[in-house]
Design a protein that fits this description.
By secondary structure, the protein is an alpha+beta fold. It contains 28 helices and 28 strands. The chain has four domains: 161 residues, Aspartate Aminotransferase, domain 1 (Alpha-Beta Complex); 204 residues, 3-Layer(aba) Sandwich (Aspartate Aminotransferase, domain 2), CATH 3.40.640.10; 172 residues, Gcn5-related N-acetyltransferase (GNAT) (Aminopeptidase, 3-Layer(aba) Sandwich), CATH 3.40.630; 171 residues, Aminopeptidase. The protein is globular and about 90 Å long. Keywords: Aminotransferase, Transferase. InterPro entries: Acyl_CoA_acyltransferase, Aminotransferase_I/II_large, AON_synthase_class-II, PyrdxlP-dep_Trfase, PyrdxlP-dep_Trfase_major, PyrdxlP-dep_Trfase_small.
Length: 801
Amino acid sequence: MAKIKHNNFLDTVNDVFTDAIDEGVLHLYAEGESFSGRTIGLNNRDLFHFGTTGYLGLEQDSRLKEAAISAIQRYGTQFPLSKSYISNPLYRQLEEKVTEMYQNPVVITKNSTLGHMGVIPSAVDDRDAIILDHQVHWSVQSAAKILKTRSVPVAMVRHNDLNMLEDKIKYYANSKQRIWYMADGIYSMYGDFAPIKDLTYLAQKYPQLFLYFDDVHGMSWIGKNGTGYVMSEINELTENMLLFGTLSKTFGASGSVLVCCNKKMYHKIKTFGGPLTFSAQLEPASVAAATASAEIHLNPEIYSLQNDLKQRIQYFNALVQQTNLPLIDKNNSPVFFIGTGMPKTGYNFVNRLMKEGFYVNLGLFPAVPVKNTGVRITISRHNQHQEIKALVDAMVYHLPKAIEDTHTNMSRVYQAFNLETKIKPVNRSEDNLTVQLENSITKIDKETWNRLVGTSGVQDWDGLLFLENTFSDNPLRENNWNFWYLIITDQQKTPVLAAAISASLWKDDMLANSTASEIIEAERKLDPYHMTSNVLSLGCLFTEGNHLYVDDAHPLRTEALNRFMLTLEHLEQSSNSKMVVLRDFKENDKLHSYFQGQGFVRVQMPNSCKIDLGHNASIEQYTATLSSRSKKHLRKDILAYEPSLDISFLKKLDTNQLKQVKKLYDNVRKNNLGLNTFSYPVELFENMSENPNWEFIIIREPENRTKIIGVMFCYKNNGSQTYVPSLVGIDYDNLETYQTYRQLLYQTLKRAIQLKFQYIDLGMTASFEKRKLGAVVEEKYAYIQTSDNYTLELMGLLESR
């Protein structure tokens, strides 16, 4: 089978960021001739600044500024020489001061990203393993992936999940020298902490465990000498820990610092640490400013600054606790996250706050799941009590307005973040709309359904009834699906929206590439349900094509879509689904902006193929319309083999034939991990054999007329005059000998013309082969919404191998 085309993660991120840029909340330019830290200039206005990571305000300290200016005057704007040869004269004092702060050896790096890229490949041995917290900073994840080229296993656990971490430690314990766990001290979006003390206990329990902390957001505002959150929890660094702090952000200068008390490891990293060796060193101004900041950190003044910030944090916390604002994590860090749920609500809320005079950060995918969009608020010493209160008052006023503007409600926001609330759900019924939701197609009018949704594939009324009967009462959970059918009408009973919906068990890697699936399938030999989740989807795992009808010209279109979203949320909860998938859309679909605003990210599916047979009365008339190149392919690779093969069209199969075709189908499924699904039950094929809308195109081996070497499972959608080859089965031992797959495609074409169908839905995959027979290939997209990014990030990690 042809290789499946997969979504590029960067395309998905680009979609989300482009939407936010268009809404005026990302990629902005600050304005003004000077900057105080308290306000920031945007769009010809000065806004109170609640988006800084300079929590102590040291970047505006006159001592740091004077040191930087003096260094430039004495040493120039840069010291253009590798640090491996000669360090800037100011470096020695900086290293001494920072070493005194931590009471341990340090390595100064250009920034944390280059620092991780230099340190991780140097510290981690080929005999080690790496485990990542799935929310650890991108720079750590990116550096860790480099180790895959050296065959170092890189695994991932859910955020702060110590049970999952311990299971991974046990998994690697007998085969790896050291097991590295990499996490942030304080996470940059929600401001929540890593469980440092619990992790140090695990490291005592498992001596192989080494801890790697990125504590750049915990730096300066807490800890002895401002050495950060991690040091405030452990007091003393041990030899099985590496700690990253920053000289930028709260420290007020530039660069980062690695702290390491393991002398052998320290020497190895400092002597040759990749970018630490070959990258440019810090500019003189940055070194001098960092040294001035280090002197403040070594002075009791740092505790006065910390307490000053702490009072502001406590004040903000106290104000928020008196409100119904959805604060995602209650803590004493200077980072806070107010949830908005859907991105469009977040855009609206941020823009409202900017108009009111406050700048806050938008937190969105991939830093957080798309439906967990919100605003990140950072408190600094620049913020005065009166503007802190004014910000809270503005949020209390504008969040409900933003929610109302974007047709959602506060209870949905709380639900998106799994927060407890006393707010009662608000079900705004649109008086002009009637919602019909049924759990069986038998409760839906057949003519109406076939006109709206049953226009392609197996999703006509009869096809869905067949699927309902097939995927129920089976012994395996993956073969029992729930179906729902939604029709929304106006007061005149005119349909505005209709949808086929299902919930079933999916493999999390279903749309990942084959590399990821191969790794996961190895673990499924021990646990067949490893990395599987309940998924709520448009259509079902068996159907392809149009599953959603929307009357784009109807004045109540948007209201109907909003009711559709509410219905999906209800079904997601009732079916305990972890993901919602809206699928089979065109690239320029009119619903793109709406779905993104509702918290869905777009991913590319395998291409879909369709043939319009037009008015060709014979196969000869149709093939005459093919290109000369396609005609040559037809003669050489298909027609030349046809006379020697036993080809038949059967409506019913005997027991032996059913056994054979099921095995051939499984051959294709196992060989096509790019679209990784569970095997269908034998009942599916038995039911096909008994159903008048199904038939089988069978190819037998010439020397053995009882042996089937290829089969196409075809459905007849009579209402839309569409012939649907839904599944294929192949004996790969004979694939090249008889060109079986190509022959099956051609025989499908012949059969559809013989039965006088107008269209053939050839479905996904193998578009190169289908195009040769005149198929129109169309890119298809799905919109995905998940409760967290763990699965998406894990797939990205596995796919990078």
